[in-house]
Amino acid sequence: MVVRRPGPAGFLESIAGRLVLLGLLLGAELLLTTFWLDAESLRSSRGLASLVFRFGPWTARALVAAAAFFLAFSYLDRDKRVPDFVRSGAAAPVSLALLASHALAALAFVWFSTLLFRSGGGQTDGLTAVWSGSAVLAAAAACVALVSPPDWRGLLRASGNKWRWGLAAGIVTAALGSLWWSLWAPAAGLTFRLVRFLLTLFTGNIISNPATREIGTPRFDVQIDPACSGLEGVGLVLVFSSVWLWLHRREFRFPRAFLILPAGAVLIWLLNSVRITALILIGHAGAPGIAAGGFHSQAGWLTFIALSIALAQASTRISWLLGRQTREETPQPGIQTNATAAYLMPFLVILAASMVSRAVSSGFEWFYPLRFFAAAITIWVYRSYYSRLDWRFDWVAPCAGAAVFALWLGFERVVPSGGASLIGEALKPVPAWLAGLWIVFRALAHIVTVPIAEELAFRGFLIRRVMTEDFESLAPRRYTWISLAVSSLAFGVMHGDRWLVGTLAGALYAAAFLRRGRIGDAIVAHATTNALLAAYVLTTGSWNLW
Fold this sequence. Notes:
This protein is mainly α. It folds into 3 domains: 11-177, no CATH class; 180-329, no CATH class; 343-545, no CATH class. The chain has helices at 15-36, 48-76, 81-87, 96-118, 125-146, 149-159, 162-179, 181-200, 231-247, 260-284, 288-317, 324-329, 339-359, 369-381, 383-386, 396-414, 422-427, 432-465, 481-493, 499-516, 519-540, and strands spanning 207-209, 214-217, 220-223. Strands 1-2-3 form a 3-stranded antiparallel sheet, with helices on one face. A hairpin with a 4-residue loop joins strand 1 (207-209) and strand 2 (214-217). Helix 7 (162-179) runs antiparallel to helix 9 (231-247) and helix 13 packs antiparallel against helix 14. It is globular, with a radius of gyration of 26 Å.
């Protein structure tokens, strides 16, 4: 039994907060390392440097995948020991000495990387060993500095075997990515034949070359290379489904439940072929930019995410796959409103709709109105919950919104965003009624649904959620300086290169909200800013601000 230190703790003082900080720190450093160092420069090396070339990227992918699988299986599992552990009590104080050690080891890693990769691995094995040791030391120092060894031991005990299965899943996933190269060519050929068959259902004028795997129509064609074979998706689905079945082995009825594995593999492969067919048809229909642009880059991920969610849900909803006791304990499906979903769903739906609209766009996002309709429908679904919130506002709210508008324009004059927006150029050649309709829905989204969704998420939810998991138990006016800073900074980061002014705007909206604890004040302040920006853009043609 794990004994935790009792007492309430803010998010950053909890194990969960420390793990988030650790993930952000190591993730950022790994991302920078990936951008900076190229393993190809060590291709001709020998000794330990050749091992770095062969297994370095593979090891990094395996560790990242292992962490992702561990978190997924811990938080999706019905046994909530890991979530309960990381949220209970306060973590040990951060070790500044170990953080300093991490910084020194990271600097040493940068220095040794310069020597090793500049020489192409021609240095001694000693340099490679010291380089590897500095990387391990930097990571270990960060892990122990932010999360104490007793807390790590408690986390491992709470996870049971999940950490082992997460590690195994990560290793298998990375191995499949490396070992399946030999299968990609024949799989791509099979995908080629299926795509050719699917195309015959829509058009008889097909161009296909089995030798080069080029297929399409006279107006648009693609080449199905090994990366388009669908095996990556098959591998991920098989690994996820296998570990999911093992973790829930007491709930499922075997051998029936094993059907999830081939079903998931076949579905993801078929959907990949459908995706390629749709891509060709979109290009053939006169939208090659959409096909080769947004659809090509987004549709694969959307398909994989959708199928993964469907498999996870189906595995616990199909009674034929479940044991008798599990069937009796499984609640009947239905709409259940909870506070977290009510506060976050409009914002998450806007993000999802933006992915879909970009997937079907080429350069200019013509399907932007999808964001408005998706958010409006979600807000309508949760309207009964929102009726409990305080939607009143007073004169301070529009004044705060006007102040943010002035701040935004002032920042634009000091640091111009640069580059003309695509909006003005894209709307010129289209009929006036179509351009006007697009602008209307863009304005409606910015003035109505976006302020509601973002204020519910960043002010109504995040400020109090940083303080405690049971955020509804806190009065709307409760906050700490840390929770205020986190919510404002998160709001700012969402605005990309305008993160600084976005953070200040978030702080002003938070001030309007916390003044009387009314979500209406924050929403009206945000809506005022966006309405003024819309009026300014439409009257001056400064589309880059929109």
